[in-house]
Amino acid sequence: MTTWSKWIAGAAMAMTVAIARAAAPLPQEVTINNVEFILIPEGWFYKTGGITPDGVEWSFLDNYGGGDVKVWLDSYYIAKYEARARDLVRYLNSDEGKSEAYSGHNVSCSAQRGADGKYVELRPDEKLPATHMTWYLADRWSRWMGFRLLTEAEWEKAARGPDHRMYPWGDDFPDETYAGYNMESACFTWPVDSFRKGLSPYGVYNMSGNVREFVADWYNADDDRNLKDGARNPLPAKGSINAPDVVDPGNDGPWKLLKGGRWGAQDDGIRVASRVYFLPDDAFRCNGVRFGLDTATVREHLAKGTAVITRQ
Prior knowledge:
Elements: H1 3-23, E1 29-32, E2 35-40, E3 43-48, E4 68-73, E5 76-79, H2 85-92, E6 111-113, E7 119-121, H3 135-144, E8 148-149, H4 152-160, E9 212-218, H5 221-226, E10 231-232, E11 256-259, E12 275-278, E13 287-289, E14 291-294, H6 295-304, E15 307-311
Parallel strand pairs: 4-10, 9-13
Antiparallel strand pairs: 1-2, 1-15, 2-5, 3-4, 5-14, 6-7, 8-14, 9-11, 11-12
């Protein structure tokens, strides 16, 4: 066989291997950069509609159909747990994270700067979620980790599954066994692996209560109104000054969205439909984040050996 023939044969073999890897079934769970991810399969689900014709937001309604819009999403991965304080500390102590203004948040519930200038977890043995996020910090940290923010649609599908359920676990009214909520405390977070009874249909933890979770979307009333049945892979909403008066009268944004409620929320604030609006550079102790990943990125990690399959 000539050198050229050998090269052709080798290239063909490499292409065959690449095609086989691309076509191989995706694992149900993988760990990348010490973060556990769950596959959310492609398919239809019911996303909460934005605004009724009379201007009332769906998030304040009972959310049994009616306002729900049937949307298709391609498969993607979502972090099994809320983003952890341990990984926030890694970022804040990195060269890229040193410029973050997190040191000014002396009421953070997860990490603070020590006397030596390094950040430390407040309770390192308890697997607590990261808190006191701004949207910009959440976005930069996600990308530093090699991940991305979820869209609101992706977040809702992972929380609700393919039906119209009100909470991640179904329609049962919550109590202290389902979620971390209804706590009158400045800082009261549970470990990220708490509340097995409150798992989403795909096995994702704490999508109701504990900390709010920033998503990629801006608030945009027009995008909400224009979302129709049959939409496929809706992009994150763009910024808009169409901010609802219930947010902050006199301050028209633009606003970023958070999902999932928090430890101080009541039962209506931890529904899948609920959303909260925040200025992107405004931090609050209850605000956290949850990471997302494209399936193509997971395949790249699998090919490089930088992903650990934890459930096939």
